[in-house]
Design the sequence.
C-alpha cells in the first residue's frame, strides 16, 4: 500500500515565516553562483531548523553569515555520509528539524544528500524540498536544444574506458542529454562524445552559470572539442548534448545496409557491428542489431 506524504497547504506570501515542522528533513536549494538567487523561504527555513547539515561547512558558513543565519552547522559529505546519515536520522526521530544543503544548488543532485533522503524516507520521516537553483536545468533551458524530453546523466566515470562504455550505451538516446564535468576532463570527454555520438551532434557547454562571466558555447561536438583543446576552461561545466536523430530514412538507405552486410561478411559479430553503425549514424542500436540478425539468418539459409 502506497502511503502519501502530506503537508498542510495554506496561502502564504514571502513575508510569512516558514512554519518549521519537528522531525522533518528539509532539502534547501542554495545559489549556484549568484547570491541574489537565495530565496526568502530558504532563509526562513535555515533560520528555523535545529541543525543544518552541509557538504562543506566553510563554504556554507559564508552563506549563513551573509543572511544572518545562526543555526548550528555540521558536516555531511561523501566521506562521512554513512555515519552522518545515521546520526541525522536519529536526531530527526528525536524531533529535531534538520536542513540539508549542498555547496551549490539542490541537495541530492550528484551529491551525498541522496543517501540521507533514502534513509529518512525508509524511516518514515517527512522530507520537504525547498526549491532553488539547479545547474543542469539552468544550462538545459538556455542551451537552445530540445527541452520537452531530456535525461540527466550527472558525472561520467573519470577513467576513459568506463566513460567511453557509458557514452556508447547512450549513442542512440533520442532525448537531450545533460552531463556535469570538471574542467580538466572536458577535452577528453568531448572527444569521447564525438566518437560515440558523431562529431556533428549539436551540443552546448555552459560554464560559470549565474556568475559574472557566465558563458554558453554552442556548436557541434567537434567544434566544441576543438575550442577547448585550444583554450582550457575554468569552473564547473555543464554539457548539454542533442539526442540521436530520428532514424527514419537512414535505416532504408541501401548504403547503410551494405555497410552492415560488409561488417558481418568480415566476421564482425552482430552486436559489435550494430554498436559501431548505430554510433556512427546516431540510430537506435536495437534496430541496427535487429537488421544484423536478419541478415545473418538470411545468409545462413542460403
Sequence:
Amino acid at each position: 500500500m502506497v502511503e502519501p506524504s502530506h503537508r498542510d497547504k495554506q496561502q502564504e506570501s514571502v513575508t510569512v515565516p516558514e512554519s518549521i515542522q519537528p522531525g522533518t528533513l528539509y532539502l534547501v536549494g542554495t545559489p549556484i553562483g549568484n547570491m541574489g538567487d537565495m530565496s526568502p523561504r530558504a532563509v526562513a527555513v535555515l533560520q528555523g531548523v535545529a541543525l543544518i547539515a552541509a557538504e562543506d561547512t566553510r563554504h556554507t558558513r559564508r552563506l549563513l553569515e551573509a543572511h544572518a543565519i545562526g543555526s548550528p552547522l555540521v558536516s555531511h559529505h561523501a566521506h562521512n555520509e554513512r555515519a552522518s546519515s545515521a546520526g541525522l536520522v536519529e536526531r530527526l526521530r528525536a524531533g529535531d528539524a534538520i536542513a540539508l544543503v549542498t555547496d551549490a544548488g539542490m541537495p541530492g543532485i550528484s551529491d551525498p544528500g541522496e543517501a540521507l533522503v533514502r534513509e529518512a524516507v525508509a524511516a518514515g520521516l517527512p522530507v520537504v524540498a525547498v526549491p532553488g537553483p539547479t545547474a543542469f536545468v539552468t544550462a538545459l533551458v538556455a542551451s537552445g536544444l530540445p527541452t520537452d524530453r531530456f535525461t540527466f546523466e550527472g558525472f561520467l566515470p573519470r577513467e576513459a574506458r568506463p566513460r567511453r562504455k557509458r557514452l556508447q550505451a547512450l549513442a542512440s538516446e533520442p532525448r537531450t542529454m545533460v552531463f556535469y564535468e570538471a574542467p580538466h576532463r572536458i577535452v577528453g570527454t568531448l572527444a569521447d562524445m564525438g566518437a560515440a555520438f558523431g562529431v556533428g551532434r549539436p551540443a552546448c557547454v555552459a560554464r560559470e552559470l549565474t556568475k559574472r562571466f557566465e558563458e554558453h558555447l554552442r556548436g557541434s561536438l567537434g567544434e566544441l572539442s576543438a575550442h577547448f583543446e585550444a583554450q582550457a576552461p575554468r569552473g564547473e561545466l555543464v554539457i548539454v548534448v542533442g539526442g540521436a536523430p530520428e532514424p527514419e530514412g537512414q535505416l532504408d538507405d541501401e548504403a547503410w545496409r551494405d555497410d552492415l552486410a560488409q561488417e558481418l561478411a568480415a566476421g564482425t559479430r552482430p552486436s559489435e557491428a550494430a554498436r559501431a553503425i548505430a554510433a556512427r549514424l546516431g540510430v537506435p542500436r536495437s534496430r541496427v542489431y535487429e537488421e544484423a540478425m536478419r541478415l545473418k539468418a538470411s545468409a545462413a539459409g542460403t
Summary: Confidence is low (pLDDT under 50) at residues 1-16. The CA atoms of residues 132 and 162 lie 32 Å apart.
